[in-house]
């Protein structure tokens, strides 16, 4: 669906190349439309609902489909079903809904079905704080489903990044045949910023590799040198089987030890072997820095301003901002840790990603968390104060 | 009959590792055969059929069949099927699963799929028990019957899938048994042909779990029970409620017309679809026709 006519239609869905005031949720929706999302199934939940509303209005305008399902579990199920039948598909939710999606996210991972899930995070646990910000789903995104699991998780920090990372999420999802999760949050979702969105025709769009061999030779989960298998869709002559049971290269359930091992290794390696291509980390003012601020999502915004403030007070501080949270960009972070003796990790939770920094840090590096979980953002001043406290 | 049996073989995946998972004498194989014959009788191309299932004994059917097959998570086949159908409307989407999968964990999806009236066929194989996990009671286990989790008898009331489907809005409902295999096949063909949400309840036997726990005997005895306790819809019309006590009615039980979801959605697409400049040009050229002959 990247024909000239399809792009000409998408061009009419939003204004490209002119400055405009947009919410993060709007930017996510437009990003999805721009990259060719043709199916959205969702269930209303604050603070993600605007994404569903915008797609309900716009998907039929380009010949796509929107459906509001009976619950959140059904939403992700329908998204996976649509993807199996050949549509680029997405859903959006928030913490409680994201918890409900975990089983089927595991299914999408196991059956290698591309799909995108936007989690506009709110305070938890449980019903928590529906209208307030949090980054407390960081670990749920990584470990939410049962079994070994290597999802791709992206973390935007601005309205523009909401658009860009939604486009990227679809591209990664298609290319790696894997679910991709976007961890937005309540502030990003509802905050308005002036942005200039690119034209749909200018975007780099990746689609899943399709089989070139005749159906009788086709293996839906073929082990290839790069661990990425071509993917056929239902209704095009390749009559394959999909299951959440551990399966062989054809997709048929297996109990053979070597086939079980091979499948699970394939799932791990298809992400691990491509981690350099997947990883997207912004590094700022780290050349002379002794202190690293490791921040993602909304907290990275505060960190950026805090660094300018702290540098005026002669703190040699820089920012490392992972836009891909998972798989964790070990190599890049390890390199940035080489020249620092302190890392500050501001997070809107009780300390989640900080564990990864501790894992990668030598003993001489002091790793300090700055945690806020009262439904408000961390302010730049709080970060500067914390630096002063730790480095008087 | 013999020729018909061979037809089922043609639709099996021969490179799949047989034997199958079902106990000898299980009714699920008969239900599967009936579905294959229905698809064959309708002359549907294999590429145009998607079979979707959940978890359980019945839900293992798709893996053996040479169609587009999707074995999903527990209770969710109707939700997956909704996405499949919307993304590729050329596909005939058939959900086949058990009573536990579709009515307990998947009960919400069941009633909403019926309400929505999307063109999906749902085949519910009802054996009154959770077979795969070892005989626990299901939402259709009759009152006072035994399950491993109802060792002193069932104290809950059972769902009637037909009544549930009807009140939720299904536009076509039929009930058959694995004893009446050729009738079952015809009912399934009618359901698949129906534009809208169609439901076929298949009364089946689980002699390994339900039959053993409730002392209902062998597979043959349980299938004969179906013969003895079923009443065709035409015969039932002439019977009193007292006479129908303890029996179940088979045949087409409900058939009505309602706007189908995807046809209605298509009307919206046709109404709001963006028309690009190129399309407008093409349209105006087409409307102008081949030109005047003067």
Structure commentary:
Chain A is 38% helix and 18% strand. Chain A is an alpha/beta fold. Chain A folds into two domains: 4-202, Thiamin diphosphate (ThDP)-binding fold, Pyr/PP domains (Rossmann fold), CATH 3.40.50.970; 282-390, Rossmann fold. In chain A, strand 6 (152-154), helix 7 and strand 7 (179-185) form a beta-alpha-beta unit. With 294 residues, chain B is α/β, with parallel strands linked by helices. Chain B is built from 13 helices and ten strands. In chain B, the strands form two sheets. Chain B has an eight-stranded mixed sheet with strand order 2-1-3-4-8-7-10-9, sandwiched between helices. In chain B, strand 5 (129-130) and strand 6 form a beta hairpin. The radius of gyration of chain B is 22 Å and the shape is globular. At the A-B interface, helix 1, helix 4, helix 5 and strand 9 of A face strand 2, helix 3, helix 5, helix 12 and helix 13 of B.
Topology:
The complex is a heterodimer of chains A (392) and B (294).
Chain A: H1 4-10, E1 20-23, H2 24-35, E2 39-42, H3 49-58, E3 65-68, H4 72-84, E4 89-93, H5 95-110, E5 115-121, H6 138-143, E6 152-154, H7 159-176, E7 179-185, H8 186-190, E8 192-195, E9 241-243, H9 257-272, H10 275-278, E10 281-284, E11 291-294, H11 298-312, E12 317-322, E13 324-326, H12 330-337, E14 342-347, H13 354-360, E15 366-371, H14 380-390
Parallel strand pairs in A: 2-3, 2-4, 4-5, 5-7, 6-7, 11-12, 11-14, 14-15
Antiparallel strand pairs in A: 1-8, 6-13, 10-12
Helix pairs in contact in A: 2-3, 2-7, 4-5, 11-14
Chain B: H1 2-10, H2 28-42, E1 49-53, E2 68-71, H3 77-87, E3 92-98, H4 99-105, H5 107-116, E4 120-126, E5 129-130, E6 136-137, H6 161-168, E7 172-177, H7 181-193, E8 198-203, H8 207-213, H9 219-229, E9 230-232, H10 233-237, H11 241-244, E10 248-255, H12 261-272, H13 277-288
Parallel strand pairs in B: 1-2, 1-3, 3-4, 4-8, 7-8, 9-10
Antiparallel strand pairs in B: 5-6, 7-10
Helix pairs in contact in B: 1-2, 2-7, 4-5, 5-6
